[in-house]
Amino acid sequence: MKRTEFGRLIDTIFASKAGEELSCSDYFERLPRYAELEATGEDAAARLPDVRHHMHQCPECEEVYLGLLEVVLAEKNPTPQGKNPPSPPSKGAFEENWPPSKRSWPEGGIRMSSLYERLGGEKAVDAAVDLFYRTVLADGRIARFFEGVDMEDQLAKQKSFLTMAFGGPNKYTGKDMRKAHERLVAKGLNDSHVDAVIEDLSRTLRQLGVAEKEVQEVAALANSVRSDVLNH
Amino acid sequence: MTTRSNTEWLAALRQRGQSHENAVKELRQLLRRAIFSFLSRKGSTNAAGPGYDHEDLAEDCAQETVLLIQSKLDQFRGDSQFTTWAYSIAIRVTLNELRRRRWRTSAIEVARLGDAMPHWPIDNPGPERSLEQQQAWAMLSELIETALTPLQRKALIAHAFQEMPLDLVAEWLGTNRNSLYKLIHDARKRLQAALLSRGVTHRELIAIFDTPRPERPYFEDGKESLFHRV
């Protein structure tokens, strides 16, 4: 058992509700609606909290959801095979900023620019930050870490985080990362929570129509600061 | 993307004759494509297995899903696209198959299934394993032994620690997935109550197991270690 799985087991023990929970069958009945809400940028967790709770408690059921969401998003934003850039998202500020620059997607599909530039630079960060923040707050696995914090301050921090994860210019050092997360580590922040944040970030980007390759690059960058965040 | 509405899908799949055949064929193709893309994105970590490539697996799972869908048409709630519902069944069928294959190659001895608690639950715990981590694990093991019914214990150990897929645990225990989920939910509730009755909170337990260096204090507010109090 991996450390993250063990952390998840402990989380599920303490998150168990006193009464009955949605069964796996009930969950699967409601899952298609949940995935469609999520894919259209709706707050699915708020609309269907029992479904959200079940997927937190049942990792196998959550895996089905993640796979389904990928399929739904792929159908919604089909990416032409080969060299083409990702399709734009269907609506919202991100669409206006997409693609960031034609130079970013040269003929032949050779990507000359940095990840940050390819994603759209600061504009892309601005477009993603609100959705990312909402996603994180709605995530029962990590929401408690944001209780009682100032929203403006948090949005500024999330923006710095996204800039870093997008490979952009950031002023963070390892020491800053450790200091910024000291309080959260004391509150129990661990690998499973970092996994959840990276998962939420990936989900946000997919919702915005970012191609899987870039999603993976961003996830890898976010993952690269894990040990600093957790002060390992 | 399909051009059929939900009503058209349902009508075509319920009919007999050529329109039924066409709908089944279209559905199978949609599902095969979706499953293949899903498997490709998952990459090598969930490989279909030796002698069995993604295309074969996608074909088989699509076929199985079509049969399941035809037997479950009355269960479609109509609050999503029909295809989203169909995809959800396809992903479930595919992941179940992958889990079954992984389980077949796992090294758990049948005789120890559901009975043997691991000595230490976490892979690669690192060079240091603090005394408090060991004490916390001993306490958790003790609670799993004493606070759960034999059936709850079996199910929890097999699924959580021996990584047996839920559907296979259900088959093994002669029950179904929903009853098994309820059994594990009840086990979690008992463990939660037992931990809280010993004064152990979520935050404290997580902090202990996420502290790789034994010398680091658990809390910065100067609170004493959990196990000095119990």
Looking at this protein, list some descriptive labels.
heterodimer, A: 232 residues, 63% helix, B: 9 helices, disordered C terminus
Task: Map the helices and strands.
The complex is a heterodimer of chains A (232) and B (230).
Chain A (H helix, E strand, L loop, with lengths): L2 H13 L8 H16 L4 H4 L1 H9 L1 H18 L16 H4 L18 H5 L1 H17 L13 H15 L8 H13 L4 H17 L4 H12 L2 H4 L3
Helix pairs in contact in A: 1-11, 2-4, 2-5, 4-5, 8-9, 8-11, 9-12, 11-12
Chain B lengths: L5 H9 L3 H25 L11 H18 L10 H23 L26 H16 L3 H12 L4 H7 L4 H21 L4 H8 L21
Q: Any low-confidence stretches of chain B, pLDDT <50, length ≥5?
A: 212-230
Please give the largest β-sheet of chain B: none
Q: State the shape of chain A.
A: globular
In total, how many beta strands of chain A?
Answer: 0
Number of strands of chain B: 0
Gap from first CA to last CA of chain A: 20 Å
In percent, how helical is the residue content of chain B?
55-70%
Element-level helix/strand string of chain B: HHHHHHHHH
User: Overall mean pLDDT score of chain B?
Assistant: 84
* Largest sheet entry of chain A: none
Please give the radius of gyration of chain A in angstroms: 18 Å
Helix run count of chain A: 13
What is the residue-mean pLDDT of chain A, rounded to a whole number?
75
Strand portion of chain B: under 5%
> Helical segment tally of chain B?
9
User: For this entry, what is the oligomeric state of its chains?
Assistant: heterodimer
Determine the fraction of residues in helical runs of chain A and give it as a percent range.
55-70%
